[in-house]
């Protein structure tokens, strides 16, 4: 189980957040980086605070867990698995809590293809219809069934990659079947060192490549502005984990 938030862009010069009883509590603040006495005469682009809390339910063998992402493996041997947290509550119980608190846009991730995890994920979706996304082993054969169980979106990675390359035909087929508005692409990434030789100099470049198959396999697609612009035509949202540090904070 984990939480993911956008960075807090709050300026140290901004006014404090109003108390809960204030009518300004839900106002969207536009923050200027300058106090009124020192503002320049030319217009300044304001900074907008846009922090949204999204809950997450990670499921491993039917249980809610928070795992160090880089220790996940395809094998059934969990000897190398590092678990930070395991809850006694079921995924459905967490989903009910999120529904009660009005938290939307969260996701359920199955960290394995076992039947217990699939069953637990479906129970969570039924507990909060339309309030949770679901990912982990999603493909064209099961995507619609998870949507019918109550998922707002399905999250896909490995299915749309083949031998490290984006399989555009699979992606287009999935979009045609369920619609772009219900598809999220998981672009979780790891730093991949590449070598570039210029005569006598060897330069090591660390770029972030999208990883698949429980974050074990590097693809040939790097996470950059061009990639995001291209894939935005096929998905409603992106989900990005920094795998090298996932679960280590």
Automatic annotation (TrEMBL):
Keywords: Amino-acid biosynthesis, Chloroplast, Histidine biosynthesis, Isomerase, Plastid
Main location: plastid
Biased composition (Low complexity): 1-14, 31-43
Region (Disordered): 1-43
GO cellular component annotations of the record: chloroplast
Coiled coil (UniProt feature): none
Reaction equation(s) it catalyzes: 1-(5-phospho-beta-D-ribosyl)-5-[(5-phospho-beta-D-ribosylamino)methylideneamino]imidazole-4-carboxamide = 5-[(5-phospho-1-deoxy-D-ribulos-1-ylimino)methylamino]-1-(5-phospho-beta-D-ribosyl)imidazole-4-carboxamide
Cited Pfam families: His_biosynth
EC number, as in UniProt: 5.3.1.16
Keyword Chloroplast recorded: yes
InterPro entries named in the record: Aldolase_TIM, His6/HISN3, His_biosynth, Isoase_HisA-like, RibuloseP-bd_barrel
GO biological process assignments: L-histidine biosynthetic process; L-tryptophan biosynthetic process
Entry's localization field: Plastid, Chloroplast
Pathway given in the UniProt record: Amino-acid biosynthesis; L-histidine biosynthesis; L-histidine from 5-phospho-alpha-D-ribose 1-diphosphate: step 4/9
GO molecular function: 1-(5-phosphoribosyl)-5-[(5-phosphoribosylamino)methylideneamino]imidazole-4-carboxamide isomerase activity
Family: Belongs to the HisA/HisF family.
Name by which UniProt lists this protein: 1-(5-phosphoribosyl)-5-[(5-phosphoribosylamino)methylideneamino] imidazole-4-carboxamide isomerase HISN3, chloroplastic
């Amino acid at each position: 189980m984990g939480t993911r938030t956008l960075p807090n862009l709050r300026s140290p010069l901004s006014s404090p957040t109003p108390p809960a009883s204030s009518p300004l509590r839900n106002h969207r603040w536009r923050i200027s980086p300058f106090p009124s006495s020192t503002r320049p005469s030319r217009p300044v682009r304001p900074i907008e605070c846009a922090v949204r809390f999204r809950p997450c339910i990670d499921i491993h063998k039917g249980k809610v867990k928070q795992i160090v992402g880089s220790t996940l493996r395809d094998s059934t041997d969990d000897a190398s698995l590092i678990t930070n947290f395991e809850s006694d509550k079921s995924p459905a119980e967490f989903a009910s809590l999120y529904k009660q608190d009005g938290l939307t846009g969260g996701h359920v991730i199955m960290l394995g293809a076992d039947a217990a995890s699939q069953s637990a994920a479906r129970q969570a979706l039924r507990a909060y219809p339309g309030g949770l996304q679901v990912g982990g082993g999603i493909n064209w054969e099961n995507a619609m069934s998870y949507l019918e169980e109550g998922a707002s979106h399905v999250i896909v990675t490995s299915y749309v990659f083949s031998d490290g390359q984006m399989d555009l035909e699979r992606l287009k087929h999935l979009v045609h079947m369920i619609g772009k508005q219900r598809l999220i692409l998981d672009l979780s990434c790891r730093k991949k060192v590449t070598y570039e030789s210029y005569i006598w100099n060897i330069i090591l470049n660390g770029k972030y490549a999208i990883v698949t198959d429980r974050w074990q396999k590097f693809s040939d697609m790097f996470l950059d502005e061009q990639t995001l612009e291209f894939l935005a035509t096929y998905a409603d949202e992106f989900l990005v984990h920094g795998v090298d540090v996932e679960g280590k904070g």
